[in-house]
Every structure is written in C-alpha cells, then in structure tokens.
Specification:
mainly alpha, 3 helices, extended
C-alpha cells in the first residue's frame, strides 16, 4: 500500500488531477437527468469583467487544452 501511494504521489501531477476532475464532472453530468441547462450571468458584467460562469468555463477549457497538449 505504501508503494502504491508513493507511485500515485509521484504520478498524479496537477495536470493529471485536473483531468481526473474534468472526467469525474463529465460522468456526473452524464448520469443526471437534465433536459435543459442554462448558464446565468450572476455578476452582471457591467464593469467589463467576465461573469463567474464564463470564468469557470474559460478555466475548464484552458485546463482541457493543457491536458490535451
């Protein structure tokens, strides 16, 4: 068990962990019975900043691109 944990500790880099989080999130949403999902702008976006949903999507896409590369 100790050897297994050491291997995982060395192998699971931040990019690997991010990939695992994205895969898990994708699997969770696939298992939910959601017919219609909408992204709402919670921040208003009046000051030129991106809304929280846009920030999250941007971070997820950047993580996915990094993992894919």
């Amino acid at each position: 068990m100790k050897e297994s944990l050491n291997i995982k500790n060395e192998s699971y880099t931040p990019n690997v962990l991010k990939s695992m989080v994205l895969d898990t999130t994708k699997d969770i949403y696939k298992s939910l019975n959601i017919k219609d999902m909408r992204v709402l702008n919670m921040g208003g976006g009046k000051d030129g900043n991106q809304d929280p949903a846009g920030q999250l999507l941007g971070q997820m896409l950047a993580s996915y691109k990094t993992i894919a590369d």
